[in-house]
Structures are given as structure tokens and as C-alpha cells.
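Colleagues,

For the teaching module next term, I've prepared a clean inverse folding example: a structure given as C-alpha cells, and then the sequence designed for it. I'd like students to try predicting residues themselves before seeing the answer, so please don't circulate the second half yet.
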């Protein structure tokens, strides 16, 4: 049985994952507006992944007989000043999500809740991957240094994801 603190943290995290989906959908829309369809598609797939993360947590709570609480998802619409800003913000956001997962892990550790800690192992690996991918994308973009042909190629590459 999950304790209240872990149940609450997991419910908060479901909301954060759904916010992440909303945020990436917003970024996808931003790139759609710039006719960068590869970038748009890449962020749309990222948004779908985030809903899957939320779904894993919902299933875990349900499996443990704990209450699932779906809260309001915050407004994610941002205005980006250039093509790079969403990429930099994605990395920052993923680092924040990692810190949240670590907090739940710490709470599970404190409560001697090995099952939740084991469940979170998947998310710890996933966050390593997400941070790495976000950093790589930002780095690739920086290497372009305003080269339009390179931008076109990166867009085509991202569209293949
Ligand atoms: Fe579900 Fe991108 O963290």
C-alpha cells in the first residue's frame, strides 16, 4: 500500500507529465507556424510520449489501489523569440522533471517503499535519455549557426523520428 506522501507526489507528477505534453504540443504548434514540419512532428511525438508517462503512473496507482486524481493542467502557451528558444527550454524543462522524479524516489526510499522505487527506475532511465536527446538537439541547432541549408536538413532529419 502506498503512503499518502507518495500517492500525492505521483498524482502531482501525472499533472506535470500532462503539462509537459501540453508544453511540447505548444512548441510543435510554434514550429508549424514557421513551416518547419520536421521540428513540429518531432515535438508532437514528444507530447505523445509525455501522455504515455502520465498513463504509466495512472496504471501504477490503480494497480496499487491508490486514488488517481486528475488535476487542471496549466496553460502552456509561451511566446518564443526565435527558433532556438523552445529547444533550450526543453532541456531546462527536462532537467526540472528529472529533479521531480528524484524527489519521488527519495520519498520512496525514506518510506522503504521498494516497489515504488523499482517502478521509478524506468523513469530515471527515461529522464537520462530525455535530457541527452534535448541537449543533442540544442547542440545540433547551435552548430548550424544560422545556416539555412543546415536548418532544412535538420528539419528533414527530425521529421523521420
Ligand atoms: Fe516525462 Fe519528458 O518527461
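(Answer key — instructors only)
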Amino acid at each position: 500500500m502506498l503512503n499518502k506522501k507518495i500517492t500525492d507526489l505521483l498524482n502531482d507528477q501525472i499533472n506535470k507529465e500532462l503539462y509537459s505534453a501540453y508544453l511540447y504540443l505548444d512548441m510543435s504548434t510554434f514550429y508549424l507556424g514557421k513551416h518547419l514540419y520536421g521540428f513540429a512532428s518531432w515535438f508532437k511525438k514528444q507530447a505523445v510520449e509525455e501522455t504515455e508517462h502520465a498513463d504509466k503512473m495512472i496504471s501504477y496507482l490503480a494497480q496499487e489501489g491508490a486514488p488517481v486524481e486528475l488535476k487542471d493542467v496549466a496553460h502552456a502557451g509561451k511566446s518564443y523569440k526565435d527558433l532556438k528558444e523552445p529547444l533550450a527550454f526543453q532541456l531546462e524543462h527536462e532537467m526540472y522533471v528529472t529533479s521531480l522524479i528524484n524527489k519521488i524516489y527519495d520519498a520512496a526510499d525514506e518510506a522503504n517503499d521498494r516497489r515504488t522505487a523499482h517502478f521509478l527506475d524506468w523513469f530515471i532511465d527515461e529522464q537520462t535519455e530525455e535530457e541527452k536527446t534535448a541537449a543533442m538537439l540544442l547542440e545540433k541547432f547551435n552548430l548550424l549557426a544560422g545556416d539555412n541549408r543546415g536548418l532544412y536538413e535538420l528539419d528533414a532529419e527530425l521529421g523521420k523520428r
